[in-house]
Amino acid sequence: MPKLDLERLVPVAGELFFSRNDTNDVRLGDVVQRGIAAYADASVVILGFPEDEGVRRNGGRPGAADAPAAIRRCLYRMGSAGLTELALVDLGDTPPAPTLEERHDLHMAVVAQIIADGKRLLVLGGGNDVAYPDYAGLTAAAGPALAFNLDAHYDVRADTPRNSGTPYRQLIGEGRLAPTNYHVIGAQPFANSPVYTAFLEKCGAQVTTLQMARSRGVTATVEHITTESSATTIFWGFDMDVVNAAEAPGVSAPNPLGMRGDEFCALAELAGRDRRTRLIELSEVCPPYDLDLRTCRLAAAMLWYALQGFAG
């Protein structure tokens, strides 16, 4: 895959980098570096994918295109405790393209370059279709990876054209993702078709419902999978609709019986702590439907805990 000129990325608006201009109260907006000039020395990169065409195609609530900016606005107001020594850069957003397919290709190339350059990557979606170029770009640069999809849905729909419900079906069908490396965590039986349950069972993927995970402990369940795995690279997809709608109302598909926010954030820290983790993505935040910024603030907290894991 050819190297991409990262200067083509869309810069983040300066107003999103919050600062109190107070040396006694340093915020994350004071710590994070900005743009391509800081890229070479960075160990962790933040990249946005402001797109919701995949959600529209899937019949979900549009608005996820606004998520990267809204999440950054909350994230960069957070404290910097434990993160001041982390070489963190926000590169901006993947630029637009005429079609979703073309934007996926462009994003995939950006991801592959960042991973090939030895960075760890946080991606801010956008719809969950971003999992397709994220995982494909990761594996193009780093080889096969264990994949976690923390989600109420399987995302293996057999739809054409691609949408926010198809990314893992695409990856499996194209041979990019071995089904036995695919783990859905937090799935809700009422949110998925038995046809797709049978598909995953037949191909050897693993589905852990939220009820199953809680019987052992959500974090303990996932940590057991990572400990038992011999994978050298791990990919994490955090879909906000895995969280209950009381704590995350601003999503593309609200979940009445989802994961708690503290469970969600604990998994993010677990992901960041594992040295095999190369990419963590967050998707399906839908700011137009948020209430009192609950969803955006939880998304920001989840990313803050992932950064704590990286820094640890």
From TrEMBL:
GO BP annotation list: L-histidine metabolic process; putrescine biosynthetic process from arginine, via agmatine
UniProtKB keywords: Histidine metabolism, Hydrolase, Manganese, Metal-binding
PROSITE patterns tied to this protein: ARGINASE_2 (PS51409)
One Gene Ontology molecular-function label: agmatinase activity
InterPro entries according to UniProt: Ureohydrolase, Ureohydrolase_dom_sf
Similarity comment: Belongs to the arginase family.
PANTHER family cross-referenced by the UniProt entry: ARGINASE/AGMATINASE, FORMIMIDOYLGLUTAMASE
Protein's name in the database: Arginase
Protein species of origin: Candidatus Chloroploca asiatica
